């Protein structure tokens, strides 16, 4: 069996994204991706975050520093 095959450039890019956004896999109090303005489809448990600093798939219970209240709630 071979070990993990990591694309170093993408790994570094991902680490940078996490660092600048303080992205985490848990909500902060009641704030989470599913209630964030930038979470593309709030009915999905994973969805695209379209914030310019992220542009990645995230989970509905994740949170980051750029969280903003959805304006359709
Ligand atoms: S901006 Fe942050 S909190 Fe909002 S959806 Fe994207 S990763 Fe989640």
Protein model, in words:
The chain has 73 residues and is of the alpha+beta class. It contains one helix and two strands. The chain has a two-stranded antiparallel ribbon. The mean pLDDT is 96. The chain binds iron/sulfur cluster (SF4). Iron/sulfur cluster binds next to loops.
- Reading the helices and strands in chain order gives HEE
Oligomeric status: single chain
Beta-strand fraction estimate? 5-15%
Q: Low-confidence stretches at least 5 residues in length (pLDDT < 50)?
A: none
Mean pLDDT level: 96
Span between N and C termini? 49 Å
What is the overall number of helices?
1
Question: Structural class, judged by helices and strands?
Answer: alpha+beta
What strand order characterises the main sheet? 1-2
The amount of helix comes to 10-25%
Radius of gyration: 14 Å
Total strands? 2
Q: What's the story with the biggest beta sheet?
A: 2 strands, antiparallel
Bound molecule types: iron/sulfur cluster
> Globular, elongated, flat, extended or rod-shaped: what is the shape?
elongated
């Amino acid at each position: 069996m071979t070990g993990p095959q990591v694309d170093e450039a993408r790994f570094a890019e991902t680490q940078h994204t996490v660092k600048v956004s303080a992205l985490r896999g848990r909500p902060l109090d009641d704030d989470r991706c599913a209630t964030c303005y930038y979470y593309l489809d709030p009915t999905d448990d994973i969805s695209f975050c379209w914030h310019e600093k992220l542009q990645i798939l995230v989970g509905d219970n994740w949170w980051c520093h750029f969280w903003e209240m959805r304006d359709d709630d």
